[in-house]
Amino acid sequence: MKEQTYILKNFSEFEPKHIFECGQCFRWNKEEDGSYTGIFNENVLNVKKENGQIIFKGICKQDIKKVCIKYFDLERDYKKIKRKITIDEYMREAIAYGSGIRILNQDLWEVIISFIISANNNIPRIKGIIERLSKAYGKPIKYNGKTYYTFPTKDELFNVTIEDYRKLGLGFRDKYIYKTVHTIDLETINTKEDLLKLSGVGEKVADCIMLFGMNKFEVFPVDVWVRRVMNDLYIKSENEEKVNKEEIRKLAKEKYNDLCGIAQQYLFYWKREA
DNA sequence: CACCAGGCAAGCC
DNA sequence: GGCTTGCATGGT
Length: 274
What we know:
274 residues; alpha+beta; TATA-Binding Protein; Endonuclease III, domain 1; 3 domains; five-stranded antiparallel β-sheet; 14 helices; 7 strands; DNA-binding
């Protein structure tokens, strides 16, 4: 396939590091020149910010401009979003820290499986598992002398056994993935209730799937990091582990309303990097 | 060595 | 319904 290029000029609120390292995605990796290369759907792209321009290069089945506008959420006004959620000095600082974050428009299936894998796991290891899973069961795509692998579809995982998953290092999540592959009907996934029926999907994973795979910005996924930052900033309990997650979600709802999810990303990236 | 990681399911009461 | 416990693995 032929390489395409798309260049974005005079475009603010786009910082590759912030976008790819804020924890929303697992398949983008930094190159030596500071750019990032990743694969999503059947597209392999390299994203580089240089002299204020954003340069997208890679192989896409469709027009690269269309692909990028959708995937990178380029038509949304993040300046306006930031204004709305800057309700105090804490959020001002968090936003300043991850100023170039955008919420990617990721494939729902990939997000579901990826965040089931994320449970009680750390980001480097999640990335490793997803790479091994893709290499074993996805389709190869060559770009710039390297081979990338698409995220395996439901059909491609259908005959994979629990033991196979275990060998890839999925740990106790092997059976969750197996069950979900064999019971899910993607066409009927619309609400949080639908997600919670899936094996391996609880409150936090469901919220991540809604935020990253369904464009629902009103959810506020609470993991250990977010609980930590919300307790440090607002709740100030001596026993952070005991702070009720429902209380945190309610507090976030009061503060950030329908933009909870974006606020959560700024907070997560800020607290986790610092 | 113990502890932790973008938690969840199962088993208790 | 809410609370506790076990869980695979790799990194500090």
